[in-house]
Each structure stands twice: as C-alpha cells, then as structure tokens.
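dumping these here so i dont lose them again. two proteins, back to back, each one seq then structure tokens. dont judge the mess
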Amino acid sequence: MVSAVWDALGAAGFSGGPVLEPGCGSGTFIGHAPEGATVVGVEADDITAAIAALLYPSAQIRHEGFETTRIPEGSFTAAVGNVPFGKYALTDPVHNPRRHSIHNHFIVKSLSLVAPGGYVAVLTSRYTMDSVKSTARQNIAQRADLIGALRLPSQAFSRVAGTDVVTDLLIFRRREDGAHVDLDTLDWIDTEDAELVDPRTGDEEQLPVNAYFLNNPHRVLGDTELGHGVHGSAQLVVAGATGHALADQIRDHLQPMMTAAVARGMGLTARSTDLSERITENFTPGLRTQDTQVDDPPLYTLRYNAATRSIDVWAGHGWEPNKTPRTLVEETKELIALRDVATALIAAQRDGEPEHDRDQLRAHLNTLYDNYVRKRGPVNRFEWVQRNATQTLHDKRIAKLETTWREQEGTTGRPYDGPVPTELVDQWEAEAWEPPEPFKKFRHLEGGMRYDPGWAVVSSLEDFDEETGTATKAPIFTRDVLTADVERTTADTPEEALAMSLDRTRRVDVDLIGELLGVGEEDTRALIDGLVYPSLDDPDELVPATTALSGNVRSSSPPRSKPLTPTRSTSPTSPRCARCSPSDAKPRTSKCAPAHPGFRRPSSPPSPRRPSGSPVSPPSTSAAAGRSTSPATDATAAS
C-alpha cells in the first residue's frame, strides 16, 4: 500500500527533493521512499523516533511533537504518511488557530509546509471527509485542491493497528499563490445523509457521508454497510479486500487518477531546484532532539528591528517580520524594553550578581516603567467592549438551541425530527437577541506582545486594579524578590552535612561530608554512624538510614544464620531487625554516635514521672547487664 502511494507521486511528477512525513512512527513510508527523496520524519515518541533514526540513517528524524515543528512554509515538494486520528486538538497557534482535531491539523499544517504545486498524500480518519462540521475541509480547500480520494475497507489496518476503522487515502495539491476557487463548486466540502443497511439484521440508519464518495461510489474499495460500535452506536463500515489484494486495488485506482491530474494541469510541479532560495532549514540526516538544537529564543519572542524600524518575531527557524500595525510599533518597542530589563534584573538576583549591578538594572527599570506609564498608562490597562447581537449570532444561537433540544428529545443516535413547539420558538427568539457578555480589549497588545513568552514578566510589574484602572508598582522596583542560591561550604551538624551531600551528589559522599564538617574521614564515619548504613547490595556503598530502614526490612535483612560482620564504614544494618522486627529480635541497648569536639548532641529529656500506682516492669536480664544477646550487637561490642 505504501509503495502504491509513492508510485502515484512518481506518476504525478515527483522526481526527488525534500519530503515531509508527519507522525512517521518507525518509518514505514521512509523505508519505501524512492531514490532522490530526502525524507524528514517527525515523531513525538522518543523510543520510536530513535528506532526510525537507526533504521533509516539517511533521513532526518525530528523527535518532537508536530505541533512544535517550526519549518519555513513551502520547504517540501511533498508530504506523505499516516496521520494520527483523535477527537482532540493540539496547541499550535500558527498552524491550528481554529483548534481542528489532530488528524485535520496534521493535514492543514502539511499543506502549509509543502511548496505550491506540491502534493500531500495521507491516510486519515474518515471523519476528515464525513464530519458534519465542514470547517476543516473549508480550511483545506482555501489553499489546496483534492486530486482524489479512496475509502479503504474497515479491516485495512486491523493487523497493524489491532482495530477496525474506516480510513481514507486523500491526495491534495497545494494551489499556487494567488489562485482562487469557488468553494461552493466543490462537492467534497459537503456531506449528505446516506441510508445504510446492516446486512446481518436488516436494520437501517442514516449516517452522514461525504458527497464525493456518494458521487463517486467506485472510489469506495468495498461495500458500505451499517455496523455498530462497542456501545451499540451506529457506525459506517466498509467490507472489502485486505493485504496484497487491497494494495493492487489502490494501485489500479491511483495510476489513472494521477494521469488525469497531470492531463488537466494538476500534476506535482514543485521541484527541489525551485526551493533552494526558500529552504533555510538544515535537513541533515540523523536524529534531531531538543538537546541537539541550538539554544534559540522561545517561540513567538518579539524584537525591535532598528534597520527596518519594525517588529520581528521568532518563528522557530529564524526571525520573520511580525504583523504589527505601524501605530503600535513604538509602544511595542517600549514593552520589549521593559521585558528585557525586567528579565535581566530577575536573572541578576537569581545568579547573585553584585548589588551595584542589580541597583543599576532596577533604576533603569524604574525609568522605563515611569516613562511608559506617563505616556500611555498602566501596562495591564484594557477597555470593556460591548457587542450587539447580530443576525449571524442570532441564527447560530437558534441553531444550537434547536440541535440541543432535538438531541434531548430524541433517542440515542436519532434526534427528534418533529415540529418545535411555538412557545419554545418564542423563548429561543428572546434568548437569541440578548446581547453577548462584554469582553476585555487590550488594544495596545495587538502589536504581538500578548503572545510574547515574556509578556507574563511585563504584566507582573504592577498590581492592577480592574475596578479603578489604576496600578501600583510591584516589589521588584524597590527590592530583590529572589535570593541567589549560594552554595554553602560548611555544615553545623552531621545531619545537615548528610542532607547537603544527598542534595549535591545524590549519594552519601563521606569525603564531602567530612569537608563540610571540617573533620577527617575516621571522625566523619563516627559522626554519621546511625545516620547511614552499608548497602545490602554493595557493603562499600553507604545509604541513608531512611532508605535502609524502609520497606519490608524483614525480607531485606540478611539471614540470621549468618551474623553481619561490621565494616570499617559504620555499624552493620542489623538494626533493621532490632528496630523494626520486635518479634524476631531481643532487646538491645541503643548505640549513639561518639561525641566529637565541637558537636554537642542535646541531652535526652528526663523520663516522665511514673504515675502513682503504675506497675513497674522488671528489666530483662540482658538489658540490666547492659548488653544484648543479638549476634550482631555482640560483634559490634567485640569490635
């Protein structure tokens, strides 16, 4: 099937050049790419991306979500692949501002990244074509023509994906810049209700089907029938061939389809030679991860371009002119300066820069902010905008109210199709003409600053009162709001030194602990005795007591038949049994770390007075003798 798609691109005119595969997985399409194709695959899963890079070292595999991919528009001659399906939207303000579902988002973005005259051939969910809501199809049709479509059988990918879903193979051609088309003349924009029959039960149901497949039933590679989902809901299924037989069918349909497209001037005309000036991205083969990328500014960061006296925006691959109105360029420039100085002041506080440097930055920030407020007002100012209910808004509200009511009055999967009561229509009319809620309008941010990642820093420079429209300066204008993380060189107690060792090295570092306490190795081991124990896996490794005494200590302790021999590191781990397994261990005296000059442990508080008349338990013989019968304790005492 994949080879048939590549063959179709060749028949349409593909002769080599950069090709995009969004959501490439382990590289099925990459593995069948013809000679001359430079494939760039995008894969969000790290393991799958690494596998694809190992399998196909001549391709560039980008380990990133496609919503974060930033490549200049028109960089590819074609795009192929099996896009992910789902009823959710990814955040991509540049290429998915309308919040299309993930499969439609991938198609729309691929069309943007393909050059005019380039093809996008993708396997996608049938809902790209069959969704009653045609917004995504209209968005696609605004810049591309549908060369052709094939509806595949439900079981086409059951062996690979483990599920039966109806999938469409769609082939689009990006229209040349400046070319327009009347969307009303395109049959594939709309859907119609089609009567489907379940061949097993004879049940009938109407489901929306794209007009393209109703007008071209031969493009459906099987019999369209009524089926039922896991919860009994009606769904469209296509019964047809699979495997090699299906691949042959696809090839038989695609070849004449491409021939006809070329004949009417709709072939794949994008050429790699035409992209040389357009391509600024480096498609070097290999695995590209976030760690291998250059430390670029955050996406949508603004800057003032003094040469052109305009605002630029970082688009992920370079600086591009931002669509900032000329009337807002100067104010946006001032907001950018506030952002940069405030960010520098925060960094100076965090990094512990000299006080003189911090004071200079703070004075500069005060000057910039005061000048801005004096000329323009608070940075968080806004105005309330009240809209009137238009006829278009009225009609949308009525349609939504009616749709909701019919679904509530109907049964599952079959909305009520009877007349609407007159009193309900009157109620809807009154509701539909109510003015919408007012909204905040930040006119001074329409130059692009609202989408700058540093806007949060600028907006936090003042405490803004929405009721009065006034603002007061934030504390950063008068004092430091961050404390530098200064690494300490000494510790006051063994416990503190151990905590600092774990924080810095993630392990018990005896040398570091001794350095912090200012004592030698022998004294260090004596001081941390009881705070750490040898690891059962490696006696030379010390672990904190909280780790050694956690979990199922009875099962993790060494066998009783083999008493622990203490190491020179510290006392053995047998206290696990003594402290946590009272049914297995006899009483023993507690062992305190030896005193060391300069480290005085607090004396134990006096024992609480025994209430009058309370029975006194006689001490055990071993306790009274000041020794334990535990083999481990005897060994310790002997040492």
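---- next one ----
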Amino acid sequence: MHYVLLYVLFMVTFTQLLRYSQRRGATVLPVCAVNYVVAAILSTGALAVFGWRGLLVDQWPAAALGAVNGVLYVVTLVVLLASYRLVAVGMEVAHHVADDARRFLLWLVRGVTAVLHAEQDAAVD
C-alpha cells in the first residue's frame, strides 16, 4: 500500500520537475541522469545502512529486480520524452497516475472489506 502512494508521489514529482526543466531550457537527458544517479546513491546508502538482512530479501533476486527496474526506467523515459514532443502531457500523466492509484486503492479497500464480511459470515454459521 505504501509503495503505491510513494510511487504516485515520486512519479508526479519527477514528471512535473522534468517538464519544468524543459520549459526552463535545460537539456532533458542530464536532468534524467541526475535523477538516476540520486536514486542509485540513495539505494546504495540504504543497502549499506540496512544490509540485505534489513531488506528481508535474497540478494540475487533483488539485484535482478533492480536491474530490470533500471532498464524499465530508461524505456519509460524514452516513451515519456516522445510524448512530450508530440503533445504536452505533463499534467495529464499526473492526473491519470493519481486517478489509477485512487481506483486501485478503492478496489483494494472493497476487496478487503468483502473478505472481512465473508469471514464474519462464516464465523456466524
């Protein structure tokens, strides 16, 4: 649950800052490179502080997931930059991501509520 909220927060923030840097005339690739490097430094710092045991995951699957996530970041970035060139979608992306997150949270709450009601009904029988 926290992951979804953090994802929405960081995605909206990154998208808006990227769009702002474009309007100010900054080259987009260095802006994205800074974002990537900061994320790598924060991840390495968290790993150094907490270690693998603090993460409660095995090393190799986590490293593989991190590598796949890095590749997906670059692919997503290419698509995002192409969409910026075609149409101004900064606010649209933020709106749709937030709307999707809201729908997911509602679905999750309704599902949990339904399970709790089913358990209560089973306990009564």
